[in-house]
Write a structure and sequence with these properties.
Strand content: 35-45%
CATH architecture: Alpha-Beta Complex
Order of helices and strands: EEEEEEEEHHE
Largest sheet: 4 strands, antiparallel
Distance between the termini: 30 Å
Number of helices: 2
Shape: globular
CATH superfamily: SOS response associated peptidase-like
Radius of gyration: 17 Å
Structural class: mainly beta
């Protein structure tokens, strides 16, 4: 499946603290994560639809923030990712490579994003910090 987003959060360890960082495309366009989904049937006749975002090794730009990153698909790769007839590892493996560093940007955001109760567009505003990530 494709999981659409306009960015994602990572937490960078710095001076013993975990700093929330928002990562997005430099062009600020929405993008698709490579995902997998499954329909699970429970013994009590319940059905649960689940999904997961695939991760890959971090590119050189994300590496200082985290050792892995989500698989971000180029729009030209999305149809192939969704094509169930494509099953060859040699064809699919290149889709799982980390995106190029030059298309991403990241900056620290408010620690309020750590609270599930805090749901505001302000979550993605840059934090008052002297440096960009």
């Amino acid at each position: 499946c494709l999981i659409l987003a306009d960015g994602y959060y990572e937490w960078q360890r710095r001076d013993g603290q975990k700093i929330p960082v928002y990562v997005r495309l430099r062009n600020r366009e929405p993008f698709a994560f490579a995902g997998l989904w499954e329909r699970w049937h429970g013994a009590d006749d319940t059905t649960l639809v689940t999904c997961t975002i695939l991760t890959t090794e971090a590119n050189e730009w994300i590496q200082p923030i985290h050792h892995r990153m989500p698989v971000i698909l180029d729009p030209s790769q999305e149809a192939m990712w969704l094509d169930r007839s494509v099953t060859e590892p040699d064809v699919l493996q290149p889709l799982l490579e980390p995106v190029h560093s030059d298309i991403l940007e990241a900056y620290a955001v408010s620690p309020q994003v750590n609270s599930a109760r805090y749901n505001s567009p302000a979550c993605i505003l840059p934090a008052e910090t002297p440096e960009n990530i």
